[in-house]
Structure formats: structure tokens, C-alpha cells
Hints:
alpha/beta; six-stranded mixed β-sheet; 29% helix; SbcD; 3'-5' exonuclease activity
Amino acid sequence: MKLLHLADLHLGKRVNEFSLLADQRHVLEQALALADRHAVDAVLLAGDLYDKPVPPAEAVELLDWFLTALTRAGHKVLAVSGNHDSPERLSFASGLLCDSGVYIAGEYGGAPLRITLEDEWGPVDFTLLPFVKPAVLAPFADERPKNADEAAAAALAALPPLSGRRNVLVAHQFVTAGGAAPSLCDSEIAPVGGADNVDAARFDGYDYVALGHLHGPQRIGRETVRYAGSPLKYSFSEARHHKSAPLITLGAPGSLSLELLPLQPLHDLREVRGPLQVLLDPANVADPDDYMHVTLTDEEELMDAVGRVRAVYPNLMKLDFDNRRTRAAGGQTAAAEVERKSVPQLFDEFFELMNGGGMSDSQRELFAAALRASGGDEP
Length: 379
């Protein structure tokens, strides 16, 4: 049986206010082609299918196209919700989708979802565990779990793997191996204090563990506990990543092989630095349509640097300066910038980032009232 592992699609995501829907369609078309070329039996989607709990209509349409294309080509789909998804929305029509070979574990209902598929070697059990945390397990446990590790352990104990059979787990958690933390990216929220950590030892009964949550492709402990990583680069901390989709081949019990199939972006996400004249020299310009972070090192003042760079790199996402003046100024750190701003200013910026526009007057009044009631700063 052949499986293709994908995760963290984050459909509908915007990076530096650039919509990536066309890029996401491009990489999903590649995933579909890989599934066809390698005669994949099932595609595993390990959470964060969407970037927001309430995704834009275009993102919903894109996922609908992808699932429909996969099932029409004869591939089963086994998916779980991630921390960015709305479990309830992903669970919608899940009963009907099962009839088409699309199995989605959106909400946790007291036990993971188990789907069994057959090949010439017999059954393969797929355990689908959506993103869980202590609050999710509380209604189903005599004692509320203290952390994510206990929550995941309790959830898996409700439906343990059957011995003598091949078992695959699809999950979306922050997984560590013996306390060793995985590699993180700027586009991820770093856990604090270890409360979100789930130890990879919890997965010892599974032949392969298809993880989602982290954007860097990597193994956790053993080779067969693996983050697929996001199919696209979603921050400049990922600029050096090589995105891929693991292809897992299950043979007879105890036999498993793994291959990383590369994924190529419609537009790469790159960083370059140097003097303006050097960077814009046609001899040094490669792939000008890529998403760019440009750092200029010129010492003299530059007129309309953004416009001049964007004339060559139209998809410029970020422009920085690194010279004697910026270094002498201390390059105002993000922490210092936050310290200078009031709570209303910070909330206003957060609201605009999440909604694509500022608050209305009535929304500002509601926020001011809530802030006064909490004893916070006056706007």
C-alpha cells in the first residue's frame, strides 16, 4: 500500500499581505500528479488544512477541488483537523464524504477515528487523531489531563493499535523525542514551558506516524515518526527549506520504505543582500518573480529604494537596510517596538492584520469599554 503524506496546507494564507492561493493551487496540482504517478492508495492530510478557522470562500473552493480531484482519480483521503482549523466546520458532511473515500476527523468525540483499508497483505488500520489539548479531553476523562502529552496519551488509549496488524497514525501535535525539541520556523507559535509537548514514545505501536503542525520537514526520534512540513514556504525563516511530500510504501507486516518527493513552488521565497546597484544588475538578477526579502547595505541615502527594487522584483515582500546608520541606531528591535506602543495600538494593529482593515468607530468603542472594564489602559 502506498501513502502520500501532506500537512499544513494553510489554504487561504497571506504572507506579507500577498495572497498565496495561486501558489497553493500550483503545489496541490503537483501533489495530485505525484499521487497519480506513484499509484498512491491514500493521501494523508495531517491538519491545518486551512489557515484560519473561518477560511475565505476561495480557500474552501480550493480544498473542495483538491478532494474531488483525488477521489475521482481513485485515491482515498484520510485527514485530521489542526489547531488552525475549525473542527466543527471540517466535520461538516463527513458522513457523506466517507461514501466517497474521504475520511475526516474534525472533532474529537471521545476516541480517535479508525479507518481500515485492505491490500494484498491484509488490513491496514489508520488512526485519525485531530488536534487535542487538555480542554478537549476533559469531558471524556475522569481526571482532566494536565498537559498535551497526557491529553494525547488518553486519546490514543481510547483506541489503541491492534497487535499483529499494520498501524498508521495521523496526528497534529507538537512532538518531541526524549525532550529534544524539533526545529521551528518563524511562522509557527513556539510552545512555552513544555505544556504543549507530546513525547514521540506515545506512538511506539504505530508503523508510521504522519504528523502535522511544524513547517520544517523532519523526523522526530525514529525515521517513521515524521513531519511532512508545509508544502510551501510561509516565512523567510523557511527560505532554505526543501519542501517535499513523504511517500510511504507498506509491504508485509514489518516492511516499510520511505521516499521524499520534492515539491516545486510557483514562486520561490528568497532572501538577498548587498548594495542596490549590485542586486539590480541584470547579471545578478535570477527568478525576478520570486517572493523576495531584500536587505540593502548601501551607506549613502537612497531615493525611492522600494520602487527601484520592485521595478525588478515585483513580488518584493520585505525591504530592510543594514549599514552603519542602522547598526548605530541599534536596529530598533521588535520587543522594543512593542514596549513603546499602548494596548489599544497593539490591538488595532492585530485587528487590521487578521481582518485586512482597521476597526470601525463602533468597534473601537466596544474595545475601549472592554479595556476599561478590565482595568487596562485607556485608549
